[in-house]
Amino acid sequence: MSDTFAFLKLTAHQGGWQPLHESLTNHLAPGEIWGAFHGLFGVGSNELIAVTVGSDDAVTESIETARRFEVDHVEALLLKPTARPTSTAPLTREGLYVFRFLDVAHTDVEEIASLSARAWQTFEGSGDYRAEAQALFCQHDRSEPRGRMLLLTWYDGLNSWQTSRQPPAEAASYFERRRRLTPGSIAYATRLIT
Fold it and tell me: Which residues lie closer than 8 Å to 25 by C-beta, 6 or more apart?
Protein backbone atom coordinates (compact mmCIF):
# COMPACT_ATOMS: atom_id res chain seq x y z
CA MET A 1 0.00 0.00 0.00
CA SER A 2 1.53 3.32 -1.04
CA ASP A 3 -0.81 5.62 0.88
CA THR A 4 0.46 7.80 3.69
CA PHE A 5 -1.35 8.11 7.01
CA ALA A 6 -1.14 10.91 9.56
CA PHE A 7 -1.78 10.69 13.29
CA LEU A 8 -3.27 13.96 14.56
CA LYS A 9 -3.91 14.87 18.18
CA LEU A 10 -5.72 18.20 18.43
CA THR A 11 -6.15 20.14 21.67
CA ALA A 12 -8.94 22.74 21.79
CA HIS A 13 -8.66 26.10 23.55
CA GLN A 14 -11.79 25.26 25.53
CA GLY A 15 -14.79 22.98 25.46
CA GLY A 16 -14.85 19.37 24.39
CA TRP A 17 -13.68 17.37 21.38
CA GLN A 18 -16.98 17.78 19.50
CA PRO A 19 -16.18 21.17 17.83
CA LEU A 20 -12.82 19.76 16.69
CA HIS A 21 -14.56 16.76 15.12
CA GLU A 22 -17.09 19.02 13.41
CA SER A 23 -14.31 21.19 11.98
CA LEU A 24 -12.40 18.15 10.75
CA THR A 25 -15.40 16.58 9.04
CA ASN A 26 -16.38 19.93 7.47
CA HIS A 27 -12.91 20.52 6.01
CA LEU A 28 -11.82 17.04 4.89
CA ALA A 29 -13.44 14.64 2.47
CA PRO A 30 -14.97 11.52 4.10
CA GLY A 31 -12.39 9.21 2.50
CA GLU A 32 -9.53 11.26 3.95
CA ILE A 33 -10.52 10.48 7.54
CA TRP A 34 -9.55 6.88 8.36
CA GLY A 35 -10.82 7.31 11.89
CA ALA A 36 -11.63 9.96 14.50
CA PHE A 37 -11.54 9.15 18.21
CA HIS A 38 -12.41 10.71 21.57
CA GLY A 39 -10.56 9.75 24.71
CA LEU A 40 -11.34 7.35 27.51
CA PHE A 41 -7.96 7.28 29.29
CA GLY A 42 -4.84 9.35 28.61
CA VAL A 43 -6.64 11.81 26.31
CA GLY A 44 -8.13 15.06 27.54
CA SER A 45 -11.83 15.87 27.22
CA ASN A 46 -10.78 18.81 24.99
CA GLU A 47 -8.68 16.59 22.70
CA LEU A 48 -9.48 14.73 19.49
CA ILE A 49 -7.38 12.04 17.84
CA ALA A 50 -7.77 11.57 14.10
CA VAL A 51 -5.97 9.45 11.54
CA THR A 52 -6.08 10.74 7.97
CA VAL A 53 -5.05 8.89 4.81
CA GLY A 54 -4.16 9.72 1.22
CA SER A 55 -1.25 10.77 -0.95
CA ASP A 56 1.72 12.46 0.73
CA ASP A 57 0.41 15.86 -0.41
CA ALA A 58 -3.17 15.19 0.73
CA VAL A 59 -2.08 14.04 4.18
CA THR A 60 0.26 16.99 4.59
CA GLU A 61 -2.65 19.27 3.63
CA SER A 62 -4.86 17.57 6.26
CA ILE A 63 -2.27 18.46 8.90
CA GLU A 64 -2.10 22.08 7.71
CA THR A 65 -5.91 22.25 7.70
CA ALA A 66 -6.01 21.04 11.33
CA ARG A 67 -3.42 23.65 12.34
CA ARG A 68 -5.81 26.39 11.10
CA PHE A 69 -8.55 25.34 13.53
CA GLU A 70 -8.89 27.23 16.81
CA VAL A 71 -6.63 24.90 18.77
CA ASP A 72 -3.91 25.24 21.37
CA HIS A 73 -1.82 22.42 19.93
CA VAL A 74 -1.64 19.95 17.05
CA GLU A 75 0.60 16.92 17.41
CA ALA A 76 1.15 15.30 14.01
CA LEU A 77 3.14 12.32 12.78
CA LEU A 78 3.33 11.07 9.20
CA LEU A 79 3.10 7.29 9.02
CA LYS A 80 3.44 4.33 6.64
CA PRO A 81 1.68 0.98 7.18
CA THR A 82 3.74 -2.12 7.90
CA ALA A 83 1.84 -5.42 8.41
CA ARG A 84 -1.51 -3.58 8.71
CA PRO A 85 -3.70 -1.90 7.56
CA THR A 86 -4.04 -3.48 4.14
CA SER A 87 -6.89 -1.13 3.16
CA THR A 88 -7.61 2.57 3.46
CA ALA A 89 -11.33 1.98 4.08
CA PRO A 90 -12.40 4.04 7.12
CA LEU A 91 -12.84 2.24 10.44
CA THR A 92 -16.48 1.61 11.41
CA ARG A 93 -16.57 -0.94 14.25
CA GLU A 94 -17.64 0.38 17.64
CA GLY A 95 -15.53 -0.54 20.63
CA LEU A 96 -12.33 0.36 22.42
CA TYR A 97 -9.37 1.47 20.28
CA VAL A 98 -5.98 1.59 21.99
CA PHE A 99 -3.20 3.63 20.40
CA ARG A 100 0.22 2.43 21.57
CA PHE A 101 3.34 4.36 20.57
CA LEU A 102 6.45 2.19 20.64
CA ASP A 103 10.00 3.60 20.95
CA VAL A 104 12.10 1.82 18.31
CA ALA A 105 15.34 1.77 16.39
CA HIS A 106 14.28 2.26 12.77
CA THR A 107 16.50 -0.67 11.75
CA ASP A 108 14.18 -2.94 13.81
CA VAL A 109 10.90 -1.89 12.10
CA GLU A 110 10.65 -4.90 9.77
CA GLU A 111 11.40 -7.37 12.57
CA ILE A 112 8.86 -5.73 14.88
CA ALA A 113 6.24 -5.91 12.11
CA SER A 114 7.03 -9.59 11.47
CA LEU A 115 6.88 -10.53 15.17
CA SER A 116 3.58 -8.66 15.52
CA ALA A 117 1.99 -10.35 12.51
CA ARG A 118 2.97 -13.79 13.82
CA ALA A 119 1.67 -12.97 17.31
CA TRP A 120 -1.66 -11.76 15.98
CA GLN A 121 -2.37 -15.22 14.51
CA THR A 122 -3.03 -16.64 17.98
CA PHE A 123 -3.69 -13.37 19.88
CA GLU A 124 -6.74 -12.61 17.75
CA GLY A 125 -8.03 -16.18 17.81
CA SER A 126 -8.34 -16.47 21.58
CA GLY A 127 -11.79 -17.36 22.85
CA ASP A 128 -11.13 -15.51 26.12
CA TYR A 129 -11.47 -12.00 24.67
CA ARG A 130 -12.17 -10.14 21.42
CA ALA A 131 -9.33 -8.11 19.93
CA GLU A 132 -7.93 -7.28 16.51
CA ALA A 133 -4.89 -5.23 15.51
CA GLN A 134 -6.04 -2.54 13.09
CA ALA A 135 -2.68 -1.03 12.23
CA LEU A 136 1.02 -1.11 12.88
CA PHE A 137 2.60 2.00 11.42
CA CYS A 138 6.20 3.12 11.17
CA GLN A 139 7.27 6.72 10.73
CA HIS A 140 7.20 8.05 7.18
CA ASP A 141 10.63 9.63 7.76
CA ARG A 142 13.07 7.07 9.11
CA SER A 143 16.24 9.11 8.51
CA GLU A 144 17.06 9.35 12.24
CA PRO A 145 18.37 6.25 14.07
CA ARG A 146 15.44 6.11 16.50
CA GLY A 147 11.77 6.97 16.33
CA ARG A 148 8.31 5.59 16.97
CA MET A 149 5.90 3.03 15.65
CA LEU A 150 2.16 3.22 16.27
CA LEU A 151 0.06 0.15 17.04
CA LEU A 152 -3.73 0.53 16.97
CA THR A 153 -5.75 -2.35 18.43
CA TRP A 154 -9.52 -2.77 18.60
CA TYR A 155 -11.19 -4.48 21.59
CA ASP A 156 -14.89 -5.01 22.16
CA GLY A 157 -14.48 -3.39 25.59
CA LEU A 158 -12.24 -2.85 28.60
CA ASN A 159 -12.77 -6.40 29.89
CA SER A 160 -11.29 -7.81 26.67
CA TRP A 161 -8.37 -5.39 26.89
CA GLN A 162 -7.68 -6.49 30.47
CA THR A 163 -8.03 -10.21 29.71
CA SER A 164 -5.79 -9.89 26.64
CA ARG A 165 -2.87 -8.92 28.91
CA GLN A 166 -2.53 -12.71 29.29
CA PRO A 167 -2.57 -13.82 25.61
CA PRO A 168 -2.03 -17.38 24.38
CA ALA A 169 1.52 -18.66 24.98
CA GLU A 170 2.60 -18.48 21.33
CA ALA A 171 1.45 -14.86 21.01
CA ALA A 172 3.06 -14.00 24.36
CA SER A 173 6.39 -15.36 23.10
CA TYR A 174 6.33 -13.12 20.00
CA PHE A 175 5.17 -10.12 22.04
CA GLU A 176 8.04 -10.65 24.50
CA ARG A 177 10.54 -10.68 21.63
CA ARG A 178 8.93 -7.48 20.30
CA ARG A 179 9.07 -5.88 23.77
CA ARG A 180 12.85 -6.38 23.84
CA LEU A 181 13.06 -4.25 20.68
CA THR A 182 10.73 -1.53 22.04
CA PRO A 183 12.22 -0.17 25.27
CA GLY A 184 9.39 2.27 25.95
CA SER A 185 5.74 2.79 25.07
CA ILE A 186 2.74 4.94 25.88
CA ALA A 187 -0.91 4.10 25.26
CA TYR A 188 -4.14 6.05 24.80
CA ALA A 189 -7.55 4.40 25.22
CA THR A 190 -10.19 5.83 22.90
CA ARG A 191 -13.57 5.23 21.26
CA LEU A 192 -14.20 5.59 17.55
CA ILE A 193 -16.57 8.44 16.70
CA THR A 194 -19.25 6.94 14.45
Answer: 33, 36
